[in-house]
Protein 1
Amino acid sequence: MIGKLFRLDVLIVLLLLLSVLSMFVGVVELHPRDIFSLSEDQQSILLNSRLPRTVSIIIAGASLAVCGLIMQQLTRNKFVSPTTAGTMDWAQLGILIGLVFFPGVSMLGRLAFASILAVAGTLLFMQIINRIKFKDIIFVPLIGLMLGGVVSSISTFIALRTNMLQAISGWMHGSFSTLVAGKYEILYISIPLFILALLYANQFTVAGMGEDFSKNLGLNYQKVLYIGLFITAVITALVVVSVGMLPFLGLIVPNVVSVFRGDHLRSTIFLTAVLGAVFVMICDVIGRVVIYPYEISVGLTIAIIGGFVFLFLIFRRAGANA
Amino acid sequence: MIKVRDIAKSYGEKKVVDDVSLSIEKGKITSLIGPNGAGKSTVISMVTRLLDKDSGEVLIEGDNIFTQPNNALAKRISILKQTNHLELKITVRELVSFGRYPYSKGRLKDEDHRIIDEAIEYMELGELEDRYIDELSGGQRQRAYIAMTIVQDTEYIFLDEPLNNLDMKHSVQIMQILRRLVREKGKTIIIVIHDINFASCYSDNIIALKNGRVAVSGTKHEVIKKNILEEIYEMEINIQCIFGHNICIYFDDQAGDVTEDDAQEYAQTVAHEQLRA
């Protein structure tokens, strides 16, 4: 049943419907039927707050889900994602270092710091998992989580010493509420990165079959691996800088797609992107209405809903094996 | 022809491959045999440039393998190592299509699809093409991998223990497929194999390795000999010619002892069965 509905066209229609819904849910009341008779205030809300928010959700959700997909493919491990590899924690540390050493650093400056540390941190993670002999499917992400935990506590320590705790808590829980016109545009940088990922989709799939397999087919394995890690680290940094942490998104969405559509990137990358956007959109709208007129941060709703989805996946797999 | 001259590989102090030289004849099946730890897989990995060698050289029709562009080489030699890729959900057709990568870089043209269809047909995988490889039996999966190398269309095909985990029926099936590839498509096939009887029945040439060195190399009739094999495997091996094949019998003599009682019991069972029929 779900499998039949799990098609790109169905998901795109769903995303469009949800986007319309997202445009009209919020503290200031707007009705779709008033669309042609909006007051100036309402117009401003729609164009400067609701539209940027909706676009941000689509870009962040789609690109972070694709990041997870690429990381899982390249590490050949279904449990590796920007969260479980510690990439997000590195990005956060990068922002903090930027802020401490260059107070008042611009958004692009913060992105640069976050990207550099995210790339370095992901490389370190890859080095560690290449060195260990015991490549258990659970052990690898546990190392990433531990590494992320260490990095995160370094961030907290620096923040405590520099009175920045307030600032970093903003990135701890991702939220789209601050992304108004003038602040969200930075997310557009992920579009060329996404296109780059599409161009390399076939290479990533081959690389996912292993180093020997890739060499046999004449693929430059190391190069593809580094390009993939660079794309994922920069996109993750971008999302953390603008939205904040969106935990486990890159883990859940690709795994759901894999259950229904397998693991060839050519056939799953768009589905993953659209499903990521749909998922974040649902979580954000729920966050906006559940304690209306206040908001729950989207990071929290993603964690809760995503947790249930993930449990469902695990039990479903266990059921299939029994 | 592939010529290998004095290749060597050490891990730390230990020399795993010690100045191995060999040549691989075109249009033949060459088997690499030898005890565990003889260096068979290491040799095959170095000859196919998967592993860097410490010294020596590998020439394919006179061209040095390590100076050839990777992509050009991928059209001349293919290597299947013993990995099952069960962590990825890839369909048989997708796996076979990977073989076109050196030619199409993943953007398949009509020509590529035609070649893929042919290989799937040739390997009798038509009904399985949309199944995921983790749902297949060992023999079916091995056939899918071989279809991939057919699609890769290389003159030389290296297989590292292609019969691992296969039962007798599927082992025979795979070896017959390899013979067919040599006969009908003129391929040159090099396999690492443990079962010396499979090597004896299905290959043309045999190279035996021991302790990282070539112990003996030649046609199968030159290598499958009592004194040669006994020295390599350090156990008693008797060779019988059965239906034109040299078959090695290498079970220890205890197991071969049949007591008087056993023989009587067997005779009775046979008599009973004949009565019932």
Note: Chain A touches chain B through 26 residues (CB under 8 Å).
Protein 2
Amino acid sequence: MQCKEIQDLLKADYFDGEASQRDQRQVLEHLDSCGKCRKLEEELRTQRVLFQKEKLQNAPESLWQNIREAIIKEQLNQEENAGYGVLSRLKELFLGQRPAFALASVFTLILCIAIFTGVFMQERQSPVQVNSRESILGYSLDNGNSDLVYGLGTNIEQYFF
Amino acid sequence: MDEISKEILKRASQGDIKAFEEIYGHTSDFVYTLAFKITRNISDAQEVCQDVFMKIYHGLNGFQFRSAFKTWVYRITVNTAINYYRKSARQSKDRLDYDGIIESIPDRRSTAEGAIKSDNEARFNGLVDKLIPEYKACLILREIEGLSYQEIATALKIPINTVRSRLKRARETLLEESGKGLMRDAV
């Protein structure tokens, strides 16, 4: 092998323990006889020692606090969004990209309200009417006091009184 | 960087902050060191770190254990730090002025061995700073984390030959920059 090939191996595979056994042997044989390549190998070793001297640095303590706060904030936002999500899904269901469905839903809703209100009012109206009749009758029956009697001016009134 | 148990990773992916703190404890020094070595700026390194851990937090749910967790962290850290380095508008303004340090230190300022060593370390840091971030990342993963070419290739998602050529180029650059054999004095 020529110096160029040996130096290429020195700067990468040989130096990093990735060279084949055959290449390693050839490099070692070459280094025994070539001062220039031996010098290169020394320089590379020095470089490595200096690089490795720059050890791991400790992350500042405040860093975890910042990350922790960011995560907690995000978790709270997610919880809030989960509640909001139901509303937004309903909104999307009714006001989303289905105008015909939305129209039908609104029509059905109005119809239901109308039916419900109709039935409810009918049920409530009967006793009111009875009560009003009873009250008129009540007034009529125990009205020894003519002052309390209101003149209604109807045929029924005339019949009773 | 130590390997972290699946149990802790699973708990962290479910939002367990204590488990995530444990992951942080195992990985933060490496992530911070790498971020600092690439950005060469303390506040940038801190921002990169925060970004990396938020990415890890978001990505844990989808982590499939097809690759080792630490390989995944290497990749996120290197990519985030390199992107940050490139995007940072302050990169030339606030970065540690190693060029200045190199200029200001005379070759034989002191005969004290300690002073020579620290001078040479500062010089060397200045030389490392001259490397492009991709070269620095490969060199850090190889020299500090002791990863093989295959592991670096997997972590950075690059071909193994690219790893080889980046390491070779990085070492050539350092040798060219050091020039006068000053690095020998440091050891």
Note: DSSP finds six helices and no strands in chain A.
